[in-house]
Every structure is written in C-alpha cells, then in structure tokens.
Design brief:
Layout: E1 2-8, E2 11-16, H1 26-39, E3 43-46, H2 53-62, E4 65-69, H3 73-85, E5 91-93, H4 97-103, E6 106-111, H5 118-127, E7 128-136, H6 139-143, H7 147-154, H8 164-181, E8 185-195, E9 198-207, H9 209-216, E10 219-224, E11 231-234, E12 250-256, H10 263-270, H11 275-286, E13 293-295, H12 296-303, H13 310-319, E14 324-327, E15 330-336, H14 340-345
Parallel strand pairs: 3-4, 3-6, 4-5, 6-7
Antiparallel strand pairs: 1-2, 7-9, 8-9, 10-11, 10-12, 13-15, 14-15
Helix pairs in contact: 1-2, 4-5, 5-8, 8-9, 10-11
C-alpha cells in the first residue's frame, strides 16, 4: 500500500507504508547535498536510508555514488523502488549499519538514526575516509536533561543549563573526536548546528596519530556556577569555588572546546543554498566560534531587571572593544569574549 508521493529537490519518491519519512529534515538534507557538491566524494553511504530520499538526492544533485542501507526489509523494498523511479542504479543493502561499516570503507558516511548515533560511531569512525555526517535526535541525553543517559551513551557528565544547545553540540563533537582517535584519525568540524529536535555535525576526516593527539587537546571541561552564571573552560576536570560569588561550581565534560565550523566552507556552501538552509548558514557565519555562550534573559532574571533589546545590549559590549554575536539556536542567546564582570555590569 502506497501512502504518499512527494517531490524534494530533484527526487521523486514514494513513502511506503511502514517506512519513515520526516519532512522537517528537508533542510538537513538540503545542506548535505550542498556540502557534497562543495566537497566532493567518491561515494556516500546513507546508513539509515528509509525511503532513500537522502541518498537519492545526493546521487541526483551532487553526482556522488550513493549506497543506500537499511535493515528494515520494508525500507529496502521502498528504497529500491524509489531508486528505479529516479532512473538511478544505486546499491541498496539490507544490512545492520554497524556490521556494514566494520566490513567496508566509504569515502563519506551519513549517520542519521532514530535516536542516538552512539552505537554506530565506532564503526563509522573506522569506515569513513573523508567525511562523516552525524545527526543526533536524542537531545535530552546531550543537553543535560537526562544526565545518566549522557554518561551512558556519550561518556559525558552534563546538567541542564540555559545554553544547553551549545553544550549538546560540543558533547557530540567531543564524543566523535574520541571515537575517531581510537583509529588514529582526526576531525575538522566544517559545520555544526542545532535545529528543531536534533544536533548535526559535518566532519572532515584525516588520518595520523599526531593530528589525532592535537585534536584531543581541543577537548576540555566547563566549570559553571548555577548561582551567578559564571563559567570558564578548563583542560582538565577540577573542583573549585566560584571566583565571583563563592558558591560551589559544577563540572560538565569532556566537551569539544575547539572550532565548530570552517568559515571558508560555509561561504562556499552559502552559494549552493536557498531558503531556510541559507538563512541558517548566514547566522552561523555571523556567530562567534566560542564555547562561551550566555543567555541575556537568564542574566536579567538573576538580576531582577527587565530585558533590553538584544542588539542594543550586544552593541554596548562591542563599544567596549569586545566581540559579541547572537547564536543560531536561540533568540536570547549570545557569545562574547568580554569578561564576565563586564557582561553582568551591562545588564
């Protein structure tokens, strides 16, 4: 039984009964296709293909050989039908994704499972030669809402903060770095973003023990004060009192503390995008690449003051000689290199 026919990009597909298709992930797929047009790849594994829409679009729009995989037999049949429907000859497999990636290497791999990518990251890290695309929809484990799940799945100690999307993205990047390092590989984040119900990272992969060691030095810990909202980055975990208010600080990590994007790549990507995906990329280009992320309204609540206009507040920071920007995932979030006391004095 056929439930739906859709057109997305250049692809025309049928969404078969019992096979998952998420229209809200169109922007995610738009960016994937554009990234592969910019970067190129010998081949592309869509590890959890479902209808085949992502891999089919990559083949049609980026000209990259796509391998579509899903262990659900209904999805395999649906993907095979959609490959024929688009006059392609993509390889369609019905394998367990981890087993497949342990057995074969691919130039680029896309992990977009239902829930956590964690069970598949070791296999993907072993298999990927050039690019690794990672999506996580279990945001509660990565943002601190469920600390036990974050520790169990990703090996991170987290708690919920007002800047939890930043923490979640950096937890995902840190976990990815540790998995790649097992195979003496390293990653350069090209694009990392939080959108709707998921986190997404695009990683450029290389090989070498020295570069892998250098990558791991870009992981660290955030010491956060729940009382006054002061925070700082440490390379190793420590326990201390807040230098601003004297309360005990809480520890989060290990997290990625390095760069989360490559400006040159984003500028090239921008030329390939339109609509929502282009708007997101523009916001990422404007955003400071720093783990020091704050929330304007959280400061205002703490100081029992009414919130000023965000742009006026940021401009006052810039007038003091510091950088300041909005963040892409929140209307009240901002990043700055200004000292904490200066920030709070301007509230």
């Amino acid at each position: 039984m056929i439930s739906l026919e859709i057109t997305e990009g250049k692809a025309r597909i049928r969404v078969c009964e019992g096979v998952f298709y998420n229209p809200h992930m169109k922007m995610n797929r738009d960016i994937t296709v554009a990234a592969l047009r910019v970067l190129g790849a010998r081949d592309y594994l869509d590890a959890f293909t479902a209808t085949g829409i992502r891999g089919i679009r990559v083949a049609l729009e980026a000209g990259v050989e796509s391998i579509l995989n899903d262990k659900n037999p209904r999805a395999v049949k649906c993907a095979e039908e959609n490959v024929r429907r688009n006059n392609l000859s993509c390889e369609v497999l019905g394998r367990d994704a981890a087993s497949l990636m342990h057995e074969r290497s691919f130039d680029s791999i896309d992990l977009d499972p239902f829930g956590s990518p964690a069970p598949f990251m070791i296999a993907a890290s072993k298999s990927a030669k050039k690019l690794l695309f990672v999506t996580s929809t279990d945001t509660s484990a990565l943002c601190g809402s469920h600390p036990e799940a974050g520790l169990r799945k990703y090996g991170v100690h987290l708690f919920k903060t007002e800047y939890y999307p930043e923490v979640g993205l950096r937890a995902l990047l840190g976990f990815s770095a540790r998995c790649l390092a097992v195979f003496e590989k390293y990653a350069k984040p090209l694009m990392t973003y939080a959108s709707r119900h998921y986190y997404r990272a695009i990683l450029l992969i290389g090989r070498g023990a020295r570069r892998s060691d250098e990558m791991l030095r870009k992981t660290g810990w955030i010491l956060h004060c729940p009382s006054c909202l002061f925070r700082k980055i440490e390379s190793l975990p420590s326990s201390e009192l807040c230098p601003e208010c004297g309360e005990k600080m809480k520890l989060m990590g290990p997290l990625w503390t390095g760069e989360t994007k490559d400006r040159s790549f984003l500028e090239k990507l921008l030329e390939e995008l339109e609509g929502e995906a282009r708007e997101l990329t523009e916001r990422l280009l404007e955003e400071l690449d720093s783990p020091m992320c704050y929330d304007h309204h959280a400061f205002c609540r703490m100081k029992k003051k009414s919130a000023s206009k965000m742009e006026d507040f940021l401009e006052r920071i810039r007038e003091m000689g510091y950088e300041a920007s909005r963040v892409h995932f929140s209307g009240t979030g901002f990043k700055t290199d200004a000292p904490f006391r200066l920030i709070t004095s301007l509230i």
